[in-house]
UniProtKB/TrEMBL annotation:
Low complexity bias (residue ranges): 35-47, 54-77
Pfam families in alphabetical order: BON, CBS
Organism: Streptomyces luteolifulvus
Family matches, as InterPro entries: BON_dom, CBS_dom, CBS_dom_sf, Diverse_CBS-Domain
CDD domains referenced in this protein's UniProt entry, alphabetically: CBS_pair_BON_assoc
Protein name per Swiss-Prot or TrEMBL: CBS domain-containing protein
Residues covered by the CBS domain: 85-147, 168-224
Superkingdom as given in the UniProt entry: Bacteria
Keywords: CBS domain
Residue ranges, annotated region (Disordered): 1-77
Segments of skewed composition (Basic and acidic residues): 1-15
Length: 286
């Protein structure tokens, strides 16, 4: 990922930051958001490179004998939506009454739920905001002022619905189980959705994937990063215990005493590990 992409990602994350002071939990959340956006951007860049084809009439370059003789390193497995989606998915039928939909969301602790027809095809999504529109119309059935009617016409009309099908938002934004996690992340980001129904090729509901599911798939947690760093140290040092490693929100802290040249090489290798945000160098060179 280029420095320009990193800069753009951080600027985008900063735009979403609140003006009020952060809570103790906010900074780690923002760090995770930056890592998430960076991972999505990196995946998109890789996809663009894969899809780039040579111009017509241009022969593809053949690998040199030296290159072909060297076995290539195994590429990391590509995660797909089917690998991270939640099964089974909670859904409601189109004819479910408003109050029953509200009870379903409350019972399942969900902010939105897919609406399906008799054949389990996803026909829309009903969310808390849809239910709030209905509740507002029930509380105040008559609006006042022509401006309010023009600006809120669609929301107001939806609020008169009594079933999931009349309250839902449609057409639904869905993803397929075979889609890559990075592509699903872009879909969720563009649509500003926290949950995406997963459907088969016939549009039938087979699961649901959340932004948290996508985040966990795109960004490894600190324990996994530490395991890879320690494995890398074991390849460089006869005694891996010579360097102590801690990881906090993707920031790797390395402490110990090493030969200067070896320390430089080791730090460079760790910096290249995916999801390492930064390195705190506390190695004493000798």
């Amino acid at each position: 990922m280029s420095d320009h992409e990193h800069s753009s990602t951080e600027k985008e994350a900063r735009r979403a930051m609140p003006g009020r002071p952060w809570t103790p939990q906010e900074e780690p959340r923002q760090d995770a958001l930056r890592r998430y956006l960076a991972a999505v951007a990196a995946a998109a860049s890789a996809r663009t490179a894969e899809e780039t084809e040579p111009a017509p009439g241009t022969a593809k370059s053949e690998p040199s004998s030296a290159t072909s003789a060297t076995p290539s390193a195994p590429e990391p497995a590509t995660l797909h939506v089917r690998d991270v989606m939640q099964v089974p998915a909670v859904s409601v039928p189109g004819d479910m009454p408003f109050l029953d939909v509200a009870h379903t969301l409350a019972r399942e602790q969900l902010s939105a739920v897919p609406v399906v027809d008799a054949a389990d095809h996803v026909i829309g999504v009903v969310s808390e905001s849809d239910l709030l529109a209905k509740a507002a119309v029930m509380a105040e059935p008559h609006r006042h002022g022509p401006v309010g009617r023009l600006r809120q016409h669609r929301l107001y009309e939806k609020g008169h619905g009594d079933t999931a099908a009349t309250l839902m938002t449609f057409p639904p934004v869905t993803v397929h189980p075979a889609e890559r996690v990075a592509d699903a992340a872009w879909t969720a980001a563009r649509a500003r959705l926290k949950r995406l129904p997963v459907t088969d090729y016939r549009g039938r509901l087979v699961g649901v994937v959340t932004r948290r599911d996508l985040l966990r798939a795109l960004i490894r947690d600190d324990a996994e990063i530490r395991t890879e760093v320690e494995s890398l140290i074991g390849q460089h040092l006869l005694d891996p215990r010579a360097v102590e490693v801690t990881v906090d929100n993707g920031v790797v802290t390395m402490t110990g005493t090493l030969d200067n040249a070896l320390a430089v090489q080791l730090l460079a290798s760790v910096r290249d590990i995916d999801d390492v945000v930064d390195i705190v160098d506390r190695i004493e060179a000798v």
